[in-house]
Amino acid sequence: MIGIVLAAGEGTRMRPLTRTRPKVLLPVADRRLIDFSIEALVRAGVERLVVVTEYKAGAVEEYVEDRWGGEVELSFVRQGKPLGTAHAVYVAWREIEPDEPVVVANGDLVFDPKLVERTVKEHEGVASMALVEVDDPSEFGVVELEDGYVRSLVEKPDPEEAPSNLANAGVYVLEPEFERYLEDVKLSPRGEFEITDALLTAAREEEVKGVPQDVYWSDVGRPWDLLDANEWALRNVMDRPEVEGIVEEGVELRGPVWVAEGAVLKPGTVVEGPAYIGPGCELGPNCYIRPATTLVGNVRVGQAVEIKNSIIMEDTNVSHLSYVGDSVIGAECNLGAGTVIANLRHDERNVKVVVKGELEDTGRRKFGAVIGDGVKTGVNTSILPGRKLGPYSATAPSTVVRKNVPEGKMLIEDGVLVDWDGRG
Fold first, then answer.
1. Which residues neighbour 97 within 8 Å (Cβ) at sequence distance 6 or greater?
2. Distances (CA, A) of 199 to 77, 205, 211, 275
């Protein structure tokens, strides 16, 4: 069986994290987003895999080759101009010229691999699509079924007009003859060639099977979705906990904790699982890592630091007397001593975050900051809930981050920004 993984998009709603890395390489537990789709396809019987790339394609291709090259026959194709999901699939289709069913998956999902296995098993007709129940259909493509087959598909309907609560899960099984629907699809109102339009046309002319499933699935679209996915992965998909690094006397590990090779935990450190401490990390002395935290690799956590429900990427330093709550922090950052990332509003309402210029409700009472790569905070910096700091930005000592800090700027006092050459 042949598989296609779509990994070409920029992931602009994940800014500032995707300003410096492809979305599909964002970390979740001990892996990257793209690993969930690839692993699920391989488990379902895919022996040849085509990965469609474009944005920061080299990084995606290098990672996938290193991680999966020994387990599945791999090839890569670059989409070129981003013209939509149907176009991306068609670019890969021409590469493989399939004579057997093709399994397609978006590369930025986190889900139970059973979702792909069941969709393959129950596949009928010219195409099948995995479906999942969602609470808010207005965020997704919503499918109406009749006798198990797709009758209609509406993109992001108003809640009162949604035909069902079954969302398109971004996983499809396509027969070779589906190619004509990819070739004939028309531009959508968004100016893209959408695979959902091709599927709907196929459903009208032939049969497209819908496969509803009650499994974990997350369309990781915004930074706070990473935290939900990270907690689920730590609790459900990791191998049995292992301690491969150095745990010194006086360290306490509570619950499932993974300590990778090369990590060092110093006396007085407490880690409550589930938590993943990546290779080369150095913790303590006397720091406190709370549940659902992932330290990706070479993260330095200093004296009397507390970290809760957060993802911190490679080579970042969290200096002594700091607090990080419910946050996502990029690579090569330095949080100065006494940096506090607040995660709860005084009125205890949901935290809101600016996404693509619009203020969005995270749905979370507790959410901290989203910090891009290479950020430096001055000592005693305070960051209010839901704030973003762009890559290679900075704060002066004793500042309060009340508004987002753009890339390449330093906040020197309330509302005052100056240019900052954060790349050194």
1. none
2. 23, 10, 14, 40
Count of structural domains within the chain: 2
By the 10 Å C-beta count (0-12 exposed, 13-18 middle, 19+ buried), 285 is classed as middle
Is 80 exceeded by the pLDDT of residue 116? Answer: yes
User: Of 421, 422, 389, which is closest to residue 403 (Cα–Cα)?
Assistant: 389
- Whether the CB-CB separation of 226 and 328 falls below 8 Å is answered with yes
Write b or e for each residue in 294-317: b if 16 or more Cβ atoms lie within 10 A of its Cβ, otherwise e: bbbbbbbbbbbbbbbbbbbbbbbb
Mean pLDDT of 72-101: 92
Q: How confident is the model at residue 424, as a pLDDT? A: 58
- Run of H or E including 222: none
pLDDT in tens, 39-67: 999 999 999 999 999 999 999 999 999 99
Q: What is the mean pLDDT of the chain?
A: 94
CATH number at residue 72: 3.90.550.10
Is the same domain home to 254 and 347?
yes
Q: Which of 128-142, 180-194, 370-384 reaches the highest mean pLDDT?
A: 370-384
Secondary structure (3-state) at 287:
coil
> Residue 110 sits in which domain range?
2-221
Task: Please check whether residue 232 lies inside any domain of the structure.
Answer: no
Asked whether residue 228 is assigned to any structural domain, the reply reads no
